[in-house]
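ABC transporter substrate-binding protein: structure, please.
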Amino acid sequence: MPATRTVLRRRRTLAAVAALPLLAVVLGACGYGSESDAKDDKVAPAAEGEKIGGLGEVKIGYFANITHATALVGLQEGLIQKELGGTKIKPQVFNAGPSEIEALNAGAIDIGWIGPSPSINGFTKSKGQNLRIISGSASGGVSLVVNPKKIKSLDDLKGKRIATPQLGNTQDVALLNYLSDKGLKVDTNTGKGDVTVIRQDNKQIPASFESGSLDGAWVPEPTASKLVAGGGSVLLDEKKLWKDGKFVITNVIVSQKFLKEHPDVVEAVLRGSVKTNAWINANPDEAKAAANAKLKADSGAALPPEVIDPAWKNVDITDDPLASTLSVSSEHAVKAGLLEDPLLDGIYDLAPLNKVLKAEGKPAIDDAGLGVK
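Here you go.
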């Protein structure tokens, strides 16, 4: 059930998460993420025309996940760059949310596609000063995939080794909450307990699973479909745990400093995001191919049909950040011991998004009472 206003107005203080080591996962030579290495003009369309507000570039972060389809397709097809004119996009790829939040705090990125739990953690840790959620992007696309020879039902999880992408990331919180609901105890920091939770890079999880060092993983797409293609079985689609099968898995955040200094640039990125989402939903097959091309450009290899096809079907693209489900995610983080009294009031600023939606003839989106006043 959504968090009550009483909970939201409690004294906001950080608990264990303030001391949790947020791993700065390096996917390349860059300090926080790997700068996307464009291999042709289609991957990195040229910035043409007038620079918005004279700004030379905007630094954008995202994951090489199908749950970040808006960023993948919008960058690949040039739909976001088109709205920015001569202001060039500088993209960086991340493995998981905590490292992207570190990059945002350090000024290494200005805007990012990211999951709900790192957004809550980052906003709370900064006492509401570092970021705003400005749009939705995706719902769903997360599964618990297991070795069917070792785990045949949800009652078989005790004593097993289950991976998540990073300590404190959205899937980590979801798994810890689910295990708690089943009466299985796990130490949040070490991952040890009735179930051993292994925090591992999404890129490494399939190999670990194949080697037998993991019994399963609670992961986003396309990692989930990679595990299935490698012999795994979907034991639980996270959609089944949410009302109407909808929950925020990816939203768009911005540095408050950048939003204040460059509102026109933020609005342009949001126009690109909204137009990308509309194009994806109207052209699913072409959009899937575009996302796969971007994954190839970022990682060096496209996904095979047995992975990209089911992964693509498992993700719903939306402009709505599904704000009420963010409240639920915050409750899960509290229960897992990652946060105490998370700060949510003012985490959203949907005014720029709603301005863009109005211009597109679309209805405004609600922030569930958690918007900036």
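Notes: The first helix runs from residue 5 to 8.
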